[in-house]
Amino acid sequence: MRRQAGLGNRQIGEHLFISAKTAGVHVSNILAKPMATTRLEAVARTHRTHLFDQK
């Protein structure tokens, strides 16, 4: 998934076909891990590790 900085839970949810609340829970869970403290940092780390690259 290509993500733009500043995308809100509603937009994330629409893209993934989940509710905004569920998207928010996932974002919170990601930010609770020591790998990232902000959404932008989480996205940057995901890009660096090629986590969501399509094969």
UniProtKB/TrEMBL annotation:
This is HTH luxR-type domain-containing protein. Pfam families: GerE (PF00196). InterPro entries: Sig_transdc_resp-reg_C-effctor, Tscrpt_reg_LuxR_C, WH-like_DNA-bd_sf. SUPFAM superfamilies: C-terminal effector domain of the bipartite response regulators. Residues 5-46 form the HTH luxR-type domain. Signal peptide: none annotated. GO terms for molecular function: DNA binding. GO terms for biological process: regulation of DNA-templated transcription. It comes from Actinoallomurus iriomotensis.
